[in-house]
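job 3f2a | input accepted
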Amino acid sequence: MNAAREKVELEGVCRSCGDRNTGHLDAAHLWPRSMGGRGFEDPARVIPLCSLIKGGAGCHDDFDSHRLDVLDLLTLEEQVALVRDAHGIERARVRCLPSEYRERRAGRLRPIPGSPAHDPFAA
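job 3f2a | predicted structure (123 res):
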């Protein structure tokens, strides 16, 4: 068993919904492997989330489909690893707070100060 899977087994609970059936849990990678994520066995780069295919509520599926915010579920170590893998804090925010990204794109949230879209002198 690799260290990432061991972390999932030791925590034994889905960080989002609280499902305690370890048979339902996956090691959800914070930065997708398809986008060049690295260190797949590194425990700081995964969190335990339940999976539909394993009989859980599908939190891992929602996270991978950008329907689940996880920032408040991450430890500081996991947040640092995500920012490193994403090569920047804004890309990491988009990954772990997809609802904020959708709201901002739809114009329902103000731009983040310091971002290119932010104009501090706008009325």
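job 3f2a | The first strand starts at residue 25 and ends at 29.
job 3f2a | closed
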